[in-house]
Amino acid sequence: MNLSRRMLLHAGLGAGAALALAPNGFAEPMADWRQGYATPPARGFDPAAMKLVRGRAPRGLSGALYRNGPAQLQYGSAYASHWFDGDGLVHRIALEDGKAIHTGRFIQTNKRIAEQKAQKFLAPGFGTVGAPDFPVQSSDDVNAANTSVVMSGGEMLALWEAGSAFRLDPVTLETRGPKVWRDDLKAMPFLAHPKREPDGRLWNLAVSGPNVGIYRISPAGALESFGLVNIGAASYIHDWTMTATRLIILVQPWIQTRSTPPFIDGFEWRPQEGMKILIVDKDDLSKKRWAQAPARAFYHTGAAWEEKGGVIRLDGSFYPSPVLGSGGGADEIKGKMPAAPRVDPRLTQITIPLTGDAVLTETEYLGEFPQVDPRRHGLQRRLTAMVSGDSPNRPGQTALTVYHWESGKADVHDFGPGHMIEEHLFVPKPGGASEKDSWLIGTTINIARQASEVHVFDASDVNGGPVATWRAGYSWPLGFHGTWAS
Ligand SMILES: [Fe+2]
After folding, report:
1. Burial 215-242 (b: 16+ CB within 10 A, else e)
2. Å from CA of 370 to ligand 1 middle
3. What's the 10 CA to ligand 1 centre distance in angstroms?
4. Given 92, 170, 286, 327, which residue has the most CB atoms within 10 angstroms?
5. Which residues are placed with Cβ below 5 angstroms of ligand 1, an ion?
């Protein structure tokens, strides 16, 4: 089998979930961190009310938090080889009229359907060899659709990174099939980290070796153009960033040297090459320049902006070397603590001058899943939110941290060892304009309660803790990324 790189890769962190409640079909109580990786019921989760357990619903809050992540990390005594290879399980938490309703559904990919039928792992993947006779005609035959979700033109899209987005019903989460942006782009990779301008235009990459496709999608969800740029190397590209006028692709020195499954085993870390940054004009992809930066590995950026005079600043969560490579998450999936200590990324700002090398400014804060106010995406801003903190003897993070770039200080709410926190998103308040006129909305697993919770923070008082928390009657697996739709 010789699959191209587009057949694979994908994103963040995440995992399977599990529980004890008979109504949701979990096999055994699991009052510890392992529920973050356990396998949920095959049908997913039917709509169920969550209970308000803290505060009250903020006035004007109305919409839905969608999240995606890899579940189904076990069939019988067999475990997934890598955390990134679980089937996509999409959640919808509707917050309306002071109530929270949770629904969860697996994306019905070819991989999911075949493996459910056989009740065993079959498809090759990011960290999985796969069955030698599993038929692979295109990247979508191994597409796990497990990394993120985005709304585009009224369609809910479940995202992977090496194949098509999958269209879903935004209410029932029923799978409608792969998204085809244009006939000649069928099964073209669509990265799990599209970027949206404040006016609604969406940009995204198609990564498959050194030639990278550039999607430009109108606010109404129509493909406006698809172009190509060459990034000089088959770097692992999970995320990227942009300013109002430029696309910025960070070419980390984690380079693919072969393209046979498990794909991640074909990547080689070459720190001596440093990180090369490509800056491309949005209106003319032939206009580009490069900047050199020290070697860093990363999964996620925050966002970028360009100052008067042309200096570009961007932020992200950067590691000294790659994590979650070969066998990433395999111990946690089996309910074992990894022997090696966890390495957390450092929130770092990169400054790219008009000429010369880029400069890294490291903050004193560690954290993942950086997020910014969507009204300021690509524009100068003050805040970056991320999840941070840890607890001894278990995986997962505990705290929401909001870093203030002007003061160098951060607001932090630490849920403590009893919670495993996931990405929190900025949700603008109606009528507000500043970044602090936002809520921060995200989920945790309340470990002792064996229950997932959704929290709403006021961005102006994160230290004060959630202003509202709803708790489900069960927990679901840790996931990667989400979006807010109202
Ligand atoms: Fe990601």
Report:
1. bbbeeebeeeebeebebebbbbbbbbbb
2. 10
3. 7
4. 92
5. 11-12
Cα(11) to centroid(ligand 1), Å: 4
Average pLDDT score over residue span 116-125: 96
Ligand 1 centre from 161 Cα, in Å?
A: 9
Distance of CA 300 from the midpoint of ligand 1 (Å): 6
Separation of CA 147 and ligand 1 centre (Å): 7
pTM recorded for the entire structure: 0.94
Which among 452, 461, 458, 462 is positioned nearest to 482, based on CA atoms?
452
User: 98 CA to middle of ligand 1, Å?
Assistant: 30
CA–centroid distance, residue 165 to ligand 1 (Å): 14
In angstroms, what is the span from residue 454 Cα to ligand 1's centroid?
A: 20
The Å distance, Cα 419 to ligand 1 centre, comes to 21
- pLDDT tens for 288-344 read 999 999 999 999 999 999 999 999 999 999 999 999 888 899 999 999 998 888 899
Query: Which long-range CB contacts under 8 A does 18-23 form with residues at least 24 apart?
Result: 18/475, 18/476, 18/477, 19/450, 19/474, 19/475, 19/476, 20/450, 20/474, 21/450, 21/473, 21/474, 23/473, 23/474
Whether 12 has a pLDDT exceeding 80, the answer reads no
- The four Cα atoms 157, 345, 372, 87 give a dihedral, to 10 degrees, of 10
What digits encode the pLDDT tens for the residues 218-242?
Answer: 999 999 999 999 999 999 999 999 9
Question: Each residue of 190-204: pLDDT tens digit?
Answer: 999 999 999 999 999
